[in-house]
Amino acid sequence: MSLRIAATFARRELRGGLRGFRIFLACLALGVAAIATVGSVRSSIEAGLAREGAALLGGDAELDFTYRFATEEERAWMEDTALAVSEITDFRSMAVVGEGDTSERALTQIKSVDDAYPLVGNVVLEPEMPLAQALGDQNGLPGAVMERVLVDRLGLGIGDTFRLGTQAFHLSAILAREPDSAAGGFALGPRTIVRTPDLANSSLLTSGSIFESEYRLLLPENTDLDALEIEARERFEGTGARWRDSRNGAPGVSRFVERLGAFLVLVGLSGLAVGGVGVSSAVRSYMSGKTNVIATLRTLGAERSTIFQTYFLQIGILSLLGVTLGILLGAMIPVLFGPLIESRLPIPAAFAIYPAPLIEAAIYGLLTAFLFTLWPLARAGDIRAATLFRDALTSGGRLPAPRYLFMTVAALALLLAVAGWFSGSWWLTLWTAGGITGALLLLSGAAYLIRILSRRGGRLARGFPRLRWALAAIADPREGASSVVLSLGLGLSVLAAVGQIDGNLRIAISGNLPDIAPSYFFVDIQKDQIDGYTDRLTRDLAVTGIQSAPMLRGIVTQINGQPAREVAGDHWVVRGDRGVTYAAAQPEDTRLTQGEWWAEDYTGPPLISFAAEEGEEMGLSLGDTITLNILGRDITGTIASFREVDFSTAGIGFILTMNPAALSGAPHSFISTVYAAPEAEARILRDLSTTYPNITAIRVRDAIDRVADVLSGLAAATSYGAGATLLTGLLVLFGAASAGTTARSYEAAVLKTLGVTRRSIFISFALRSALLGLLAGSVALAAGIAGGWAVITFIMETDFTVIWPYALAIIGGGILATLLASLVFAWGPVNSTPARVLRARE
């Protein structure tokens, strides 16, 4: 009976329209829309990757080998299984134009193909022509195609000649698009495509060279990929082969999209938290305006539960409306802007309406609305009728009844559980929740402290009436300082944290490294070249340091006789092939943390020195055995020591180092880092590449710039999420300013009656807004710096530095935002007629 009566009351209350709930609906809709949009875009990309899996991979399935081609038996199995097989090699080298001192060199990622490539999709060239024609011979030279950025860098034109290793090629066309580009992962140089047979005389694909061979398979329709994968893994076990198929054509891209999407959803939750502050303020303001209605109902015998149910149903209906609006926006934005978004993506996306992310966003929105409206509604239901007649909600207790406290805790726990489940990262969810909670507590405490300091500061501001009026207004709980500090502060906190993280990552990658990093990495140095290479550099006075080491690539297949992934999980060391080296003596700059180095003349069973940090993460200890597959042969070694490996110096760092007898007989090349004066770098590169055309040089600055470009994209995507959070905070800010219009009109009328000029009143309003913005921005900056420091220190594990220009921009933004919101709604009160306002008040 009570619920039926409450429903009747709620329906009649809603007849009054949405007045007072515009900010409520806007905050809720915007937060839900942000999460729904991110989820919809992520689902669109995942659907595109699934739909185009074969095209992305370049076939229905793929087998990869490191440092070698498939054997005749391996190739025979592939040809018996598939309708067609395409062999591809992928490696880095230098593209050279010209001779002598006038030559130009640039790093390129080479893909050499056979006549069957591509099995799926099409290579797009400019000018348009078949790939086979572009790679054919002209004037006795084989053809090649390059990406435009590399063509421009080398100053080439169609028909010009360049060299790869010792082989000359003519440029036939510009490579506009390759169908399987997303499957290649991160590349340090632009792409060049040639035919594999044309590299026979290039000295690039020799024994020990660093390359990967990839065999794409075009399978019969209705092939059971699960069964075929099991058969392939059993047949190729111990050979170092890796299997992929069209169900996950670009695993690196899929993993990246999934994790970035999860992170952005959690950033969106920060926006919902900001919106929750606005929702709570709107409900509190609305309930304050319903004092007479509630008092009348209580006088007529309405129970507390009826009062609570009445407004709970009303707010619930409005919450459903706000969530629905947010879902509609989140569903339509990706569809409407799909062509624009897809044009900026390097991967396919199938933009449509996907129910799963919309349901996820709806759950987030409803739980947030419930969490932030429960207390204002509970306090209204628990206040006695006589108190309501005297003073709205401010006379009620600070805390609602225990049952509502329990419901609040339960709703918060459910929200965290849902966020952890949907994002797939409990760790990241708890970090985000802890950061938001900490920021809210800090901002709440700051708002309370601001009111106290303003009350005391008012006494010290005698002689400065405008400042005194401003401080007195801030000290008044009805002025809404708490809402301003919470909403704007949380939005600015998220933006400040993102800015500090982005700035510190840029410093770590491109700011600090040049002082300690080498000038070049040189790879593919053959055994018979290393002595001459070293002699050339040691005689150069501009060279300040050389570090060289033998290098092989191996896959960790077993740990203590068990599959590596069963022991180490999804640790990055066991996800792909890793660099492996050998050394007789312990290097001078190597510090052991456990165990001992082997004797220089040791020839016994293979021993391993493993990176200490990664070993601890994988749960390894001295005496454990690790099986590596190197060039198709399994080598099992025992961990004899753990050592520190510092990758931050950009020097040579290997996870695994073994004794020489274990590896020296296998075909391999050397890797080297060179430290030289900047003015000598071009000369060194020219001399070495002329003498040893097969050697590939990777300029460290170029590699840093490529990583910085990736980070720029991440920072931009995260900033969009933080921007939505800030926009929600601005909505709350404007709502608070709008709600205070009546109080400011009365204040202005009283001051005018006492002889104060409009100019002084306006300056007073501006001062209070600027002070609130300054304080909110300062607190937000402190919270953002703390959050950025935590992420950089504990997650990124690098040094943290405050980015002051960005920090000052946050404070300036806080002042500007509050000034804008306040002054927009201050113009009316300043220009109001005192008699009319005071008469209405009476």
From TrEMBL:
Keywords: Cell membrane, Membrane, Transmembrane, Transmembrane helix
Residues that span the membrane, as ranges: 21-41, 260-283, 311-337, 349-375, 404-422, 428-450, 769-796, 802-827
Domain ABC3 transporter permease C-terminal, residue spans: 267-380, 724-831
Record Pfam families: FtsX (PF02687)
Subcellular location as annotated: Cell membrane
Membrane topology: Multi-pass membrane protein
InterPro entries for this protein: ABC3_permease_C, Membrane_comp_ABC_pdt
Full protein name: ABC3 transporter permease C-terminal domain-containing protein
Organism of derivation: Roseobacter fucihabitans
Lineage: Bacteria, Pseudomonadati, Pseudomonadota, Alphaproteobacteria, Rhodobacterales
